[in-house]
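Vacuolar protein sorting-associated protein 41: structure tokens wanted.
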Amino acid sequence: MSTQPEATDEHALQLPSPAVAAARQAASPGDAPEERNAEQDEEDEDEEEDEEPKLKYAKLTGSLTGVYRNGDSTSAFAVAGDKMVMGTHNGSVHVLGLPGLQGLRSWRGHSATITSISVSPVPPPPTVIRSDKGEISILSPGSPAPSIREQPRSTTGASATARQQKQQQSPAPSVPNTPNNQIYVATSSLDGHVCISSLIDTKDVQLRNFARPVNAVCLSPDYKNDRTYLSGGLAGQLILTVGGKAGVSEDANTSSTAAAASGWLGTLTGGLAGGGQGKDTLLHSGEGPVGMIKWSTSGKWVVWVNEEGIKIMRSHLRLGSENSEDAWKRIAHAGKPNKRSWTGMAAVWKARCEWINEQRLQEDYIGSDTLSTANGPSNGTSTATLKRENKVEKLVVGWGDTAWLLHVHEGGRSHSGTRQVGSADIIHKLQFRDCLISGISLYTPSLVAILAYRTRDDDDKPIDNSDTPSKGGRQRNRRTGLAPQLRLVNIKDGEEVDLDELSISRFETLSAQDYHLSTIYIPRPVPEKLLRESGKGALQAVWEASGGGYAERLFSSSASVMSGSSSGKDEKSAGLPSVSSPKSSMQGVLAAHTTSRAVDAHPFMEAQGLKLVIQSPYDCVLAIKRDQADQLEWLLEHERYAEAWLLIDKHPQIVDTADRQTWTNDSEPASPSGADPSTLADFFADGSDTQSSVIGAPGYHATSQKEKRRIGDRWLQQLIAAGNWSEAGQVAGKVLGTSSRWEHWVWTFAQASKFDEITPYIPSTQLKPPLPSLVYEVVLGHYIQADRTRLRQLLESWDPKLFDVKSIITAIESKLRSGEVTEKTYEDGEKGRDWRILMEALAKLYLAEGRSREALRCYIRTQNADTAMELIREGGLLEAVGEDIPGLLMLRVSAEQLRSSPPLELEEASSEAVQLLREEAHRGTIPPATVIRQLEKQGPPFQLFLYFYLKALWQGRPDQEQVAPRRKWDPLIEEGHALVNDHADLALRLFAEYDRDLLMTFLRASEMYSYERAASICEQRHYIPELVYILSKTGQAKRALSLIIGELGDVKQAISFAKENGELWDDLLDYSMGRPRFIRGLLEEVGTAIDPVKMIRRIPEGLEIPGLKDGIQSMVREYEIQYSISEGVARVLRGEVAVGMDTLRAGRKKAVRFEVVHGRHGAEDVDIAAKDVPTKVPNGEVLPVAKRNVMIKRVKPGHCVGCGDPFSEEEKFPLIGFACGHVYHLSCLLRANPDTADEKSIDRLIDQLGYDDREQSYGTRSVGAKVAHAHLINNVVKGGCQHCIIPDGA
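Answer:
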């Protein structure tokens, strides 16, 4: 926003009137103007009727009869918190309490038209209390004065004068001295006076005469302390007044004596000289009359409008001492539009300004499908966000045909870097070509409410509006004005969201200056329970919760707002003096004067949220946002039942206001989280709709459901009347909820033969109470005759309990018996389609009735394999399968497949049934004889299935791998072989016909078939390998060999056959000698099986044998290979024998190591232990000799194993030790050996060894004696340790 008066028209949005836009769209060449206008008017009317309004209206004129008494009319209007103040053309001031519009006080402060009203400080909004029973009441400041609407109205001047004099003589009822009543009301008038009066003290009145008509006055928000206000008028001066004379009568300026005493000259001289008359300071002048002055809600900024444009300046409030020079400095200016239409009219058109409190705005309509009221920051803006953005204040200005939205910022830097007091930016600017703005306010964050005074009629023709007021302030004889309009306009793009024409009395005589627009805010009702639990005075608790000491802050008398910080930071944190006075100064007043009374107000005034108030000289109209109940009512009035039903379905709480009130009385209000708020602060922090408390109330849903059914019936009637049966059926599925209503509407559709439209939506589950079964039976009966495909769908989705199964079975059976539907009839080019549908439907109904066998027959006839198999396996119908085995095998095989499909495809299709029969054969339920008998009766076409069956019995499960020969015995396979062997000849024939590989397997594995029959079959089919096998089994080896040579010509097979039958070699040679190819084959393949010399000698001389050389070379190579292998094996054996001999010799040569320990057990005892030593071959290599598995018994160390005596150093006989660790006396070892167990043999051997009583050392013996001694000892110990046990095979 620039401080220079440049034109700002480039930011404007030109909006053509609706009539012009419609006329432009409808105009086309060749159409008559009258016809186009008529058609366009009708279309516009239809569009207006089809578009739901956003607001609803109520006239409050009947509640303000006291204001309009004696022919008086209003000229000024203001709403401040819970007060509504009106000024009249006769100079009277009326203060009313909200929301009941009860009169608090009236006085006559001027002798001419009142031009503006200002209130300081602004009291909090009305506090609504909801009792535990749900009753709504208002916190009221004591007993109110008699209501203005109760004051009698007189039509005669004499009686009115007498009554007025009587009222002046009698004392007026006092206004209770409560914090919300401690306000000052300032009024300005065309008589040149400014009157400032206290609401509660009739003697606290300040009068000031400026000698020229005053158009605007605005009190400081802290007027109670600083006695400061601004004023301006036709003199073109913006005057700041501080102080002034107080204590005179409230109507002192209406008497001639007082007026003379306080004339404009005396006022000015007194003010300049002091003398208690106040001080006037000229802040601005020279730019034409001042039309509007508004102080911002924070108190920091002041906006005023004169003939040249809009101006904003910094006030003296909330400035620190270091920034005191910033007071009353202008920060911005927006010039008036530079348009010809504004020439000479800027001073005539009254500007309208409104500072915005964003926390009290409504929720946006755009993108929202609800009509709930906002109770906090709108448009998703949190309180924290608003606190962060508290340096920006929003201002809307409407002047002439232009509207501005401005953002005012504190501080900042200019382009040159110097500090700025503040700045303002034009965010949006709108212009209207068909109206003047008589009032403006921001209704939602994106919608601005415009009170439009029309300057063009419906034909887009200008209206002769002479807006110059008469001397009395009104135009008495004008008859050209049109009814005003309230428009909701998107502030961003100028789109007109809603437009309503207002019903205003005598609007023809009014001008744009006669209308006013203001707002009323009603917060959420406070639960009485929270007030009781708070333990404080009611008003104090509410104000603390809603504003944090609101009353104490505004009505303090001990602190000035001048002490606040200029930076806008928290005063307490900055260490500066607080604005608030001690709390104890108010608690007594709050507790003593607050009472609760029942609401006596228009219902629209009770509704929470933001409301628009339109004031004219003769009317007062209230506009509020339409709620969901209003939307429902409008939809029903316009017969838009679909939208109405959906609305009530989504928001059932809007059904009935009266019932909702009853439910509220019986239930506790609940927060959205399901728990009651514990404190008032929690309550005000909760922005949920109070209607949410009744959602779960008993009886509530019953009422909403009842209303939904009623609307649903109307919806259906509307659709059926329009012939839209298809949509009616869909709607019926949504709106019909009871069996009686379903029965009624199904018969309605049935009588009109509209079964297809209603059937998909008929309930498929049981209702309570249930829908009569006749309804379902009639529908099913219709589709049995008309549409069998639909019948199948219904039986799949409908529970059989819904209808009489027997009656439907009878109907289907009758249809099948009639012959109209058979397996050969065609439906939509498909043979037997309807017959299959009816048979399957019959099967399902049989199952529902418990007739499983009949159901299985139906499934087998229709070849429904999956269902039939499931029924067989899970339904215990194995016996039933045996009655129709061919039908079971044909479940997945069609007649066409049976004729033309290859065996592999037929085997795959019948595999499940064949495996089932195989399993039953093993169980003994269905023996193979039964299957064979039934299949053979069916003739040749079913021989293939008989083969499949026998093959399955022989091979077992299909997932079982067949390995020949089998490594593991399988009882199931053996049992299957036994079952097939019972029918071996049949199996032989079928295997020979369909599976030759399986035939050979069968011939080799089975011995139950007839060899003669087998040989005959093989000869007939020329199966030579199979015939060879049979001949070999029957002892006809030579014939078999001749077949191999003569028929097969397979040399390898012949040689292999000869190897199995050794007596056939000569026959083989005899058969081969005349066949060169066989001779060569024998040379190459026979190897060493026969003598090659013998075979070569038998070859006839002169016989030419191709490849003879190669054959002989091959045979020679074979022998060479055999010789090489034999030689290598011999070499290996020789090496192993040599190693073994070396090991043996080394083992025999090795000694046994003895370990001797003396004196372990006694003085003469010794411990002797034998240890085995490694065996070394002659080349020094240590051989790992494997030890035998010998069980060694434990023996006490140092003792003889035989006698058990301990060893000593004086042993007479030698000691013999073994590698196992056992040590013997020689005599004891001889006794332990069975060969020398007798004593004679022992004595003889001892004598031979020289161990007798003669003392002879071993070292003195000769070599011969030593050799003889070693030989004898070897014979003694060759049996090894007699104490150790060597198991067999060790």
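The longest helix spans residues 1108-1149. The two ends are 117 Å apart (CA to CA).

Cheers.
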